């Protein structure tokens, strides 16, 4: 009686087939002389194929990353494209505001025509002059708050570098309503002892930097320590400074409005360790803590 051999499991059969050796030979066709040979198994071929595939994928990713080809990927936008988007958005907002104002003027103008009003007398563009007031001899009257502020500044030392605003005061820097230049996390606050007269705010990549108040751009340029920098002169000798930008959207002499994009967040300059905004406020040539007046959250 013959004994049946135990059946080989399918896993062992696959393992055996993968490790079965084959010999690849290169021979001379005329003399059948063996020139070159190599022993391979299915497992060796599979490993070589996987490694080549991984290398091809990695090489393709590197080429796309370091070349302009990445701009053709759907959803990816370059800094120049982001800049153009904000410029177009700003122009669209300005046009929309102008159209709304013009429509309102035309509507009011038509209503006044239908009511038979005298347009020259009721035109709001005409300045109304009170004949009872002598505009050439108006007395110079100073308010009590103005007098107190003048006295406070006269008693201050000229070499004081930091401006400390008086609480619950409606004069000085407290009269301004600041627009938040960047919403994010404050990582480094105002520290006069260590000569850090600013706040550092981390924001999302390619976030726009906004003007905190209406004003005129007085400086745009590159510095070794601070990268791309833009400074704006506001009313009452107030200056705001924005550092470490990746791109500047305004030039010197440009007039800007509060909330208008002026730059793109960046990581330029020596004194930076990541994309953020270094924001300074200077009032009458004295450093001011921006966190006292602006909520960056």
Q: What is the rounded distance between the termini?
A: 89 Å
- Which structural class should the secondary elements be placed in? alpha+beta
As an assembly, this protein is single chain
Would you identify the regions where 5 or more consecutive residues have pLDDT less than 50? 119-129
Q: Helix proportion of residues, in percent? A: 25-40%
Order of helices and strands: HEEHHHHEEEEEEEEEEE
CATH superfamily grouping of the largest domain: Glucose Permease (Domain IIA)
What do these coordinates show?
With 297 residues, this protein is α+β, with helices and mostly antiparallel strands. The chain folds into 3 domains: 10-66, no CATH class; 79-117; 172-292, Glucose Permease (Domain IIA). It has helices at 10-18, 42-66, 79-114, 119-122, 144-155, and strands spanning 21-27, 34-41, 185-188, 199-202, 208-210, 215-223, 227-234, 238-245, 247-248, 255-256, 261-264, 277-283, 286-288. The longest helix has 36 residues, at 79-114.
Tags for this model:
297 residues; Glucose Permease (Domain IIA); 3 domains; 8-stranded antiparallel beta sheet; 5 helices; 23% strand; elongated
Short description:
With 297 residues, this protein is an alpha+beta fold. 29% of the residues lie in helices and 23% in strands.
Topology:
Layout: H1 10-18, E1 21-27, E2 34-41, H2 42-66, H3 79-114, H4 119-122, H5 144-155, E3 185-188, E4 199-202, E5 208-210, E6 215-223, E7 227-234, E8 238-245, E9 247-248, E10 255-256, E11 261-264, E12 277-283, E13 286-288
Antiparallel strand pairs: 1-2, 3-4, 4-12, 5-11, 6-7, 6-10, 7-8, 8-12, 9-11, 12-13
């Amino acid at each position: 009686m013959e004994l049946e051999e135990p059946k080989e499991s399918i896993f062992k059969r696959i393992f055996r087939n993968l490790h079965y050796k084959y010999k690849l030979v290169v021979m001379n066709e005329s003399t059948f002389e063996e020139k070159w040979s190599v022993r391979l198994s299915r497992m060796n071929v599979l490993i070589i194929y996987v490694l080549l595939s991984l290398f091809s994928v990695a090489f393709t990713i590197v080429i796309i990353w370091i070349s302009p080809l990445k701009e053709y990927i759907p959803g990816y936008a370059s800094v120049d494209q982001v800049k153009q988007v904000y410029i177009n958005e700003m122009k669209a907002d300005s046009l929309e505001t102008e159209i709304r104002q013009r429509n309102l003027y035309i509507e009011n103008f038509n209503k006044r025509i239908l009511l038979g009003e005298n347009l020259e007398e009721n035109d709001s563009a005409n300045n109304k002059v009170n004949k009872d007031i002598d505009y050439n001899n108006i007395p110079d009257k100073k308010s009590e708050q103005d007098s107190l502020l003048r006295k406070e500044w006269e008693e201050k030392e000229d070499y004081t570098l930091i401006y400390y605003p008086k609480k619950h005061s409606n004069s000085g820097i407290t009269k301004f309503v600041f627009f938040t230049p960047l919403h994010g996390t404050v990582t480094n606050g105002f520290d006069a002892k260590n000569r850090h007269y600013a706040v550092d705010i981390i924001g999302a990549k390619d976030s726009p930097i906004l003007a905190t108040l209406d004003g005129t751009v007085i400086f745009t340029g590159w510095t070794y320590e601070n990268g791309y920098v833009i400074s704006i002169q506001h009313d009452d000798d107030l200056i705001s400074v924005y550092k470490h930008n990746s791109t500047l959207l305004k030039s010197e002499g440009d007039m800007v409005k509060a909330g208008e994009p002026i730059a793109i967040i960046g990581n330029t300059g020596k004194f930076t360790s990541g994309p953020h905004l270094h924001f300074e406020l200077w009032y009458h040539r004295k450093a001011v803590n921006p966190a006292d007046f602006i909520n960056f959250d």
